[in-house]
Request: fold
Amino acid sequence: NAGVTQTPKFQVLKTGQSMTLQCAQDMNHEYMSWYRQDPGMGLRLIHYSVGAGITDQGEVPNGYNVSRSTTEDFPLRLLSAAPSQTSVYFCASSYEQGSLQYFGPGTRLTVT
Amino acid sequence: AQSVTQPDIHITVSEGASLELRCNYSYGATPYLFWYVQSPGQGLQLLLKYFSGDTLVQGIKGFEAEFKRSQSSFNLRKPSVHWSDAAEYFCAVGAGNNDMRFGAGTRLTVKP
Reply:
């Protein structure tokens, strides 16, 4: 199993550009989540999904969109990047509600 | 929504000394509780989790944590710290809907 994979590892965007952060898992987990990690703030939940076709907002959803067309993939879209979205983004998956989450290696995004 | 507080931003201990990292949570029902560790530039690794049952939970790398409902706490302990334990530690609380909230983290420095 590859576990949870994320691409790219690093990305630099200009303000206003759009992009998609990819996340995939091969563990057949129903539950997937996106977090951003900022210094002194821990990880904050952006969006999560409890299964294909179902997504919901987390703590800091503004500026981000998600979709879940398959169990394996959970991409995160930045529609119009802003410097405030400079962060490290982690994708996670888990096999049941409230259970432990497996984290991807992260994507470091810089918006100039 | 649930929330987590880690009161200590940074802790320094000597190698071989004991360690306790504090975590307090706020949640109306019985929470799912987790401790994760993150080494510099790395993703998050689960140390231990509490779902129910015995309130003293054993984890990997010699760590343990105790759930105290009366104090809304889930402190992480290790009897003898090793230099390789230097990292950032995150406490997290999960609800039944895969909505996990993380604390801001405690950075551990180990003195030789």
About this structure: Chain B touches chain A at residues 1, 4, 6, 9, 32, 34, 36, 42-46, 49, 51, 90, 92, 94-105 (CB under 8 Å). The longest strand of chain B covers residues 87-94. The radius of gyration of chain B is 13 Å.
